[in-house]
Each structure stands twice: as structure tokens, then as C-alpha cells.
Write a structure and sequence with these properties.
The chain is of the alpha/beta class and 411 residues long. It folds into two domains: 223 residues, Rossmann fold (3-Layer(aba) Sandwich); 163 residues, Glycogen Phosphorylase B (Rossmann fold). It is 38% helix and 15% strand. The chain contains 15 helices and 15 strands. The strands form three sheets. Strands 3-2-1-4-5-6-7 form a seven-stranded parallel β-sheet, sandwiched between helices. A six-stranded parallel β-sheet has the order 10-9-8-11-13-15, with helices on both faces. The protein has a two-stranded parallel ribbon with strand order 12-14. α4 crosses α5 and α8 crosses α13. The two termini are 13 Å apart. It comes from Flavobacterium silvisoli.
């Protein structure tokens, strides 16, 4: 069976969204589907063994000229007018030009005659989805993958905020849910969350979790990492809503309560942390806390497999319907996952209510206790620090993916 994939990007270094999209595409190939991937990455990229076509930006259009005029105006005046333009037009001129460019590219490949058309996006863009809305001849084959809640006023707190163009964006997502033949979500909680706003989600949705993609050749570990220590790793962007303050406080309490840990324990915070400079500044030279900026994807994967404990840090909230893109990699790394997040979260749901190493993201006492419990196991025998969740590995592989899609395509 043939699947036409329209992905906004297949550059794994530009965002977590692109990482999970490439993992999904790779597992579609492993599952035996015949693929053609149309991508709007701003460079030529090929995925091994997969036909990939770079859709280029149309630079001969009124929307392109308007988008550049706005960009030049904002650069020279320091006055940001895009939000006001979006209130009038719904989307930026750049978004509209990109959408038309993608639509034009898709129309050149309709002779592929796919059984399924899968749109993948990143961040809050949904450009491929908007392009598909304008191609009604493909709607009966269209599976729209919705990776996050949208629009922003439908995010759970504290992520939610109201865009000036919120009415247009809400109508846009409503149209996706109505016009697509199928909807796919990476998590059950996200599907249920979106269903509460868009009724069509209820009867046309499947869960396709983020997929495991393990690099065949491991990258060398960075020089700052020290082997054979009790090491805890948080890898990924520290968004404004993901405050590391309570994690650090819990770790410092752990050090105070275990004098031996000062010479053999490290907390690694890897990734963009510009939103929390004031929180992290006092610890830049702390001997037990290592803070680094972005590392290449392959290097992070090597670290996840080498550390004692991987950390998933979520916002202080009532619910987290997100499935972090790094979750399947943490599962296959087979190290305990320290979860800091709300009681109702997709990560906690998958690991189960009996999973011991969970706490609210701001519960310093519980964070310290969980780190101490993990440290006690490590002191006794580091080899006992294992996640051992084959069920979650199976959940995130091409076998489950193939079964999910066959249930749709073979009806």
C-alpha cells in the first residue's frame, strides 16, 4: 500500500517535531509501506531508502513579496505588525505563501495515486494541513496528524493564550477535523482533549504514538560527561512553562542528605534554557550541576542510554496531554524515567499508576525522595537501574504502527 507523506520538515536538528516526524516516516518504511515524502524543509535532505522530494518556496507571488516587505519593515522599525495582520487575514503572508507552495508541489505528484495521504507538521504551523484543505480531491484519503493541542487558547494551562486571530485558527482546526478522513494523535489524552472541543474527533481518530528511532551508529559521548557516576539527565528545551527550579532544589536537598553523592552524582540539563537564565545562572559553576546548550540529536541519544536516570519535566498544571518526543527514546534507553508533571499526564498514564518515580513538578520533597530511592538502587548495583518496559517498546515500533494503519486501509 502507498502512502504520500507531506511533512513540513525532515531536518531532525531543527525541532523536536521534525525528529518525531522522521521517526514516524522511518517506521512506515520498516512496516513495508511504499512511501513518497514531500517535504518543505529549507534544504535538500534525503532519508535512506525513501523517495524524498523537496518542495521549494514559490518566490514569484504577491504573498511572497508582501511577506518580505513585512519582514524588512519589522527589521528596520522594530515594530512587530504580523499579529495585527493575522487579525485581518487570519494567517501571515509567509504562512499563506508557504501553504500555496506546498499545495502546488503536491499537485505535481498526484500520479503517485496513494492509498493514504498523511500530513505532518511541527510547532504551531500546520502548513501541510492547510494545503490539504485546499485539495478536496484528496480528502477521502487524508489522515491529519495533530501533534499538539491547537489553537493556543485550547492548550491546557499554563500554555494557553489567546491569539488575535483565534477565531480564524479555531475555524481552521474545525475544518481539518471535518474534512479529513482520519485524524491521528500521538497520545490518548490529547485525542480526548481535542475531542472536548471538536466533536468530529470522536469517531475518526487513531493513536499513533511517537516512534522509536535508534541511530545505527552511536555518537561519541561529549567530553563533559563522566561515566560511572550517578547521573540524571534532562534533555530538551526548557520552555518557559517548564521551570527547572524545583528539580534543582530537590537535587540539592538530595546532595545535602547524602554526603557521598557530592563526589559521584551529577544533574545534566541539556538544551535551550534561555527562558530560565535567572534560575540557572547561580548554578553555572556548580560541581554537581552541568548546564549545556543544544547538542546534536545523535549525541543526546547516546547520553540517554549512558546516564543512570532520564528526566521528563512538564509544567505545573492539572493535565499534560502531550507525549514528549523523547519519550520513546527514553523507553528504549531502558533507564528509569523520573517524571515531574501533573497526575493526569500521558507519560504517567503509559507508565501506569503504580510507577514509583513520579511527582508533581513543584513537589520538592517528593522529587528529593525519588532521587534518593534511585540513588540507593544505584549504590547497591547500577545494573539494577532498568526500566524494563517491553510493552512500551512494542507500543512505539513499526509492528504496532502497521497494525493501526492496516485496520484503516484494509476496511
Amino acid at each position: 500500500m502507498k502512502i504520500l507523506v507531506i511533512s513540513e520538515s525532515i531536518n531532525v536538528e531543527d525541532s523536536s517535531g521534525s525528529k518525531v516526524n522522521v521517526a514516524l516516516i522511518s517506521n512506515l518504511q520498516k512496516a513495508g509501506f511504499q512511501l513518497k515524502v514531500l517535504h518543505y524543509t529549507h534544504q535538500e535532505i534525503q532519508l535512506e531508502g525513501i523517495e524524498c522530494v523537496w518542495l521549494k518556496e514559490n518566490k514569484i507571488s504577491i504573498n511572497y513579496l508582501l511577506s518580505r516587505a513585512v519582514r524588512v519593515f519589522q527589521r528596520h522599525t522594530k515594530i512587530y505588525i504580523n499579529t495585527h495582520l493575522e487579525k485581518i487575514f487570519g494567517f501571515s503572508f509567509t504562512h499563506t505563501n508557504d501553504t500555496h507552495s506546498i499545495k502546488k508541489g503536491i499537485k505535481k505528484h498526484l500520479d503517485f495515486n496513494p492509498d493514504l495521504v498523511l500530513t505532518l507538521s511541527k510547532g504551531s504551523s500546520f502548513r501541510p494541513h492547510r494545503a490539504l484543505l485546499q485539495l478536496p480531491e484528496l480528502h477521502t484519503k487524508w489522515m491529519a496528524y495533530i501533534h499538539d493541542p491547537y489553537p493556543f487558547h485550547m492548550y491546557p494551562r499554563p500554555y494557553n493564550w489567546v491569539e488575535k486571530s483565534y477565531e480564524v485558527k479555531e475555524a481552521f482546526v474545525l475544518a481539518i477535523t471535518q474534512k479529513s478522513a482520519h485524524l491521528a494523535f500521538p497520545s490518548l489524552l490529547l485525542k480526548e482533549w481535542m475531542e472536548s472541543y471538536f466533536p468530529e474527533v470522536a469517531h475518526k481518530s487513531v493513536i499513533i504514538p511517537h516512534q522509536i528511532k535508534t541511530e545505527t551508529q552511536a555518537a561519541p559521548l561529549p567530553d563533559f560527561f563522566i561515566r560511572n557516576e550517578f547521573s540524571l539527565l534532562h534533555a530538551g528545551n526548557l520552555l518557559r512553562q517548564r521551570n527547572p527550579k524545583f528539580l534543582i532544589e530537590g537535587f540539592l536537598r538530595f546532595l545535602d542528605n547524602h554526603s557521598s553523592a557530592r563526589s559521584e552524582a551529577k544533574l545534566y540539563l541539556i538544551g535551550n534554557h534561555s527562558c530560565h537564565e535567572s534560575v540557572l545562572q547561580p548554578y553555572l559553576n556548580h560541581p554537581n550541576i552541568i548546564i549545556k546548550d543544544y547538542l546534536e540529536y545523535k549525541t543526546v541519544q547516546s547520553l540517554e542510554k549512558e546516564v543512570s536516570v532520564n528526566i521528563i519535566l512538564e509544567a505545573v498544571s492539572e493535565i499534560s496531554p502531550f507525549l514528549p518526543g523523547k519519550f520513546p527514546n527514553c523507553v528504549v534507553a531502558n533507564k528509569p524515567i523520573l517524571i515531574l508533571g501533573p497526575y493526569y499526564s500521558e507519560v504517567k498514564r503509559l507508565l501506569g499508576n503504580q510507577y514509583p518515580y513520579w511527582s508533581e513538578a513543584n513537589d520538592v520533597e517528593a522529587i528529593e525522595k525519588n532521587i534518593s530511592d534511585l540513588y540507593a538502587i544505584w549504590k547497591n548495583n547500577p545494573e539494577e537501574l532498568r526500566l524494563n518496559r517491553q510493552d512500551l517498546i512494542d507500543y512505539s515500533t513499526e509492528i504496532n504502527l502497521k497494525q493501526t494503519l492496516n485496520n484503516i486501509l484494509l476496511k
